[in-house]
Design a protein that fits this description.
single chain; about 130 residues; alpha+beta; 9-stranded mixed sheet; 1 helix; elongated
Length: about 130
């Protein structure tokens, strides 16, 4: 039987468990690294990147927006703000593009709301100054 390990991917809203991993490759500041079963204890900070896991001899792709990775006692733990997962790299690319499109729309709406709030604030300040005079 081929040795494997499990993983927990933890986000603020969800915990994903992944079993039967025989290899995991990701990136930190020093570059790409791999983890095999029986790896020594390991801790690093993930760069925003694509990681690959070999699960039941099939490749699975993960996109992480940074995070903290630890490996201890055959358990890989990744704590991240958000991630996406797919068995196909082209599908993962579509998921990421859709995510960035949604993020861009949210940021545009946020900036528009902040601009309107700023205008309302200055308008109110001018009205208050006129009342004082």
């Amino acid at each position: 039987m081929k040795p494997t390990f499990s993983a927990h991917i933890i986000t603020p809203s969800h915990i994903e468990r992944v079993d039967n991993i025989s290899f995991f490759r990701a990136e930190d500041r020093s570059g790409s690294f791999g983890i095999l079963p029986r790896h020594i204890e390991f801790l690093t900070i993930l760069e925003p990147s694509i990681a690959i896991a070999l699960i039941n001899d099939d490749e699975e792709y993960f996109a992480f927006n940074g995070g903290i990775l630890s490996f201890k006692k055959e358990m890989l733990t990744i704590t991240t703000k958000e991630f996406a997962q797919s068995r196909r790299i082209d599908e993962l690319k579509e998921i990421i593009e859709q995510y960035f499109k949604e993020q861009t729309q949210k940021e545009s709406l946020f900036h528009l709301n902040m601009e309107n709030l700023q205008k309302a604030f200055f308008k109110k300040m001018i009205e208050l100054e006129r009342e004082i005079e």
